[in-house]
Amino acid sequence: MSVFNMKLFVKAQDGTEKIFYVREDSIITYPDGTSTNLRSMRGSFYGKRAEIKYAPIRDGTGGSPSGSGFSYEIGQNGVLTLRFLD
Fold first, then answer.
1. Nearest alpha carbon to residue 10 among 23, 19, 21
2. What is the pLDDT of residues 16-48, one digit of tens each?
3. Contact assessment for residue 86 and residue 31, using Cβ atoms and an 8 Å cutoff
4. Does 84 score more than 90 pLDDT?
5. Is 54 within 8 Å of 20 (Cβ atoms)?
6. Helix (H) and strand (E) counts for the chain?
7. Which pTM was predicted?
8. Per-residue confidence (pLDDT) for residue 44, from 0 to 100
9. Which of 45, 47, 70, 81 could connect to 53 by a Cys-Cys bridge, CB 3.0–4.6 Å?
10. Please, which residues bridge with residue 29 across strands?
11. What is the pLDDT, as a whole number, of residue 2?
């Protein structure tokens, strides 16, 4: 497998829930300011506060031009940036 995505269930402060897909091209930033991608993500993020910038997924590549097989995500919320606040 060359490309993978992670389905992320997020609960907002008002209690509403949304589903996001962290893609191979998503940028993940830690509270200390360092950034990484999905393949190099470290630590647990369960229960952490985060800021998410997202856009609708428009293709089935999973964030990689050479990838395919993610057409089921088209129209879903794809994470552009995920910034952990704590």
1. 19
2. 999 999 988 899 999 999 999 998 888 888 889
3. yes
4. yes
5. yes
6. 0, 5
7. 0.87
8. 82
9. 81
10. 35, 83
11. 57
